């Protein structure tokens, strides 16, 4: 089948199909005499596998590993389980980080009057950067790579958030 048909049947766009081929998730497609790509049912099955794995948020390198295990009839299911549990743990960590970010933003929004005055504790807190940057390292927080603005005091309700 041609690239358009393979894309439609697999649920992967033709552009992504070419990309997956270029990064080695899918073997190089056969070609017609005119140079058009030709895909097999096995290729389409692999594309569906990739699409479902991407839907689960798996990174490409891990998907490559899973494809290798999927195609290896002598695989140990423990290897597959390890990859899945590692990814689940990473997702949980991201969920925790996103939850903290959301809570920090909600606290900042609660501290804002949201009126016509120009004073905005949200902007002040972001500019000061003391307690609203979840991605910063502990050394940054303690060492203060970005000093607080002179005369400004971070909101005590944000301390220890992240």
Automatic annotation (TrEMBL):
Q: What is this protein called?
A: Cu(I)-responsive transcriptional regulator
Where is the protein localized?
A: Cytoplasm
SMART domains per record: HTH_MERR
Using the UniProt record, give the first listed, main subcellular location: cytoplasm
- Boundaries of every HTH merR-type domain copy: 1-69
Please indicate if the UniProt record lists Transcription as a keyword.
yes
Q: Which InterPro entries match?
A: CueR, DNA-bd_dom_put_sf, MerR-type_HTH_dom, MerR_fam, Tscrpt_reg_MerR_DNA-bd
Higher taxonomy:
Bacteria, Pseudomonadati, Pseudomonadota, Alphaproteobacteria, Acetobacterales
Sorted alphabetically, the keyword list is:
Cytoplasm, DNA-binding, Transcription, Transcription regulation
Which residues lie within the region annotated Disordered?
A: 131-162
Which superkingdom?
A: Bacteria
From start to end residue, where is composition biased (Basic and acidic residues)? Answer: 131-143
């Amino acid at each position: 089948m041609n690239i358009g048909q393979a894309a439609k049947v697999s649920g992967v766009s033709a552009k992504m199909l070419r990309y997956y081929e270029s990064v080695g998730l899918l073997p190089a497609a056969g070609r017609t005499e005119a140079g058009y790509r030709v895909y097999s049912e096995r290729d389409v099955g692999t594309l569906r596998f990739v699409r479902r794995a991407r839907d689960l948020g798996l990174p490409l390198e891990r998907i490559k590993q899973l494809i290798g295990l999927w195609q290896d009839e002598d695989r140990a299911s423990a290897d597959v389980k390890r990859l899945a549990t590692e990814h689940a743990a990473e997702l949980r960590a991201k969920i925790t980080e996103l939850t903290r970010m959301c809570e920090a933003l909600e606290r900042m929004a609660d501290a804002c009057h949201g009126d016509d005055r120009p004073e905005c504790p949200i902007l002040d807190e972001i500019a000061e950067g003391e307690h609203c940057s979840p991605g910063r390292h502990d050394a940054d927080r303690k060492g203060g790579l970005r000093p607080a603005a002179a005369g400004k005091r971070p909101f005590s309700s944000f301390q220890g958030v992240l």
